[in-house]
Amino acid sequence: MKAFNFLVLIFVQDFGLSLGEVRSDCVCGESNTKTSGRIVNGKITTPHKYPWMAAMFLATSSSFMCGGAIISDKNILTAGHCLFYIPDPYKTYWMLGMYDRSRQDGRKYHVAHYQFHPKFINYTVYDDYDMSIVRLGERIIFDFTMRPICLPQPDDAFTGLWAVVAGWGRIAEGAGAKLASVLLETKIKVYRNDECKHKVKRLVEFNPKSMICGYENKKDACQGDSGGPFFIETHPNRYEVFGVVSFGDGCAREFPGIYGKVSNRETLNWIGRYIATSQSDTCSDSIY
């Protein structure tokens, strides 16, 4: 989460874009358990419950930096500020199929290319259209531990529903707080745009085209969770990402968490174009 304190998917739906080959031997958005599974005041997940989760590390120090989500067999969706504040994003690597951050018990993938959202803007205390996509240097071999999440239909909102945020970020606010050792999750309620605009106006100008927000008392994403997916179970054991962890005012305060909005049609078109140019393969979607 980007802090001022700096404090979210793949679609095989038809948006009129070529997304590469849609594979029939895998399905997007399937978790590895049908039971609800800690992030600040969250819960420990079971190993590999959410196989689309990805983690970015600095190659020079092996320091954990941000989260992300697998959206194809070559691409990771993350926050724009996760790459913006790194001197050289090519000197990072991604761990996929990882559960224990302290052991980095997954498979390492290096960065071949990356792209910011075309409208990404870095302001002093927050970012707008805060998304970027990474192309990995080799294809992901999908298995029990590594699979993509589904992307939403354009303008999916889910207002008033409960969504999931997961990551390996700090478990409390402050630079001295510890990072989570294993993947944590919590559920956050999605707010209406007018609620978001009112609750964040003292610090930022809420943009409903590029942002969504959510809040639950004393539960939140925190520093280190940036870039991770904000996702929801739309059908039994079928999850789609509609937000990317972006920023907030500290962690688990009364200020809601802000997420980059994936379900904007322009954003989905950008994602589709990048997947196509990456010559990536996607998985089928159980509801289409």
Automatic annotation (TrEMBL):
PROSITE patterns in UniProt: TRYPSIN_DOM (PS50240), TRYPSIN_HIS (PS00134), TRYPSIN_SER (PS00135)
Alphabetically ordered keywords of this record:
Disulfide bond, Glycoprotein, Hydrolase, Protease, Serine protease, Signal
Query: Where does the record place the Peptidase S1 domain?
Result: 39-276
Q: According to the lineage, what is the superkingdom?
A: Eukaryota
Q: What SUPFAM superfamilies does the entry give?
A: Trypsin-like serine proteases
Annotated GO biological processes are:
proteolysis
Which InterPro entries does the record cross-reference, listed alphabetically? Peptidase_S1_PA (IPR009003), Peptidase_S1_PA_chymotrypsin (IPR043504), Peptidase_S1A (IPR001314), Ser/Thr_Proteases_Immune/Dev (IPR051487), Trypsin_dom (IPR001254), TRYPSIN_HIS (IPR018114), TRYPSIN_SER (IPR033116)
Q: Name one GO molecular function term.
A: serine-type endopeptidase activity
Give the range the annotation lists for the signal sequence: 1-20
Q: Which Gene3D superfamilies match?
A: Trypsin-like serine proteases (2.40.10.10)
| Family per similarity comment | Belongs to the peptidase S1 family. CLIP subfamily.
What name appears for this protein in its UniProt entry? CLUMA_CG018141, isoform A
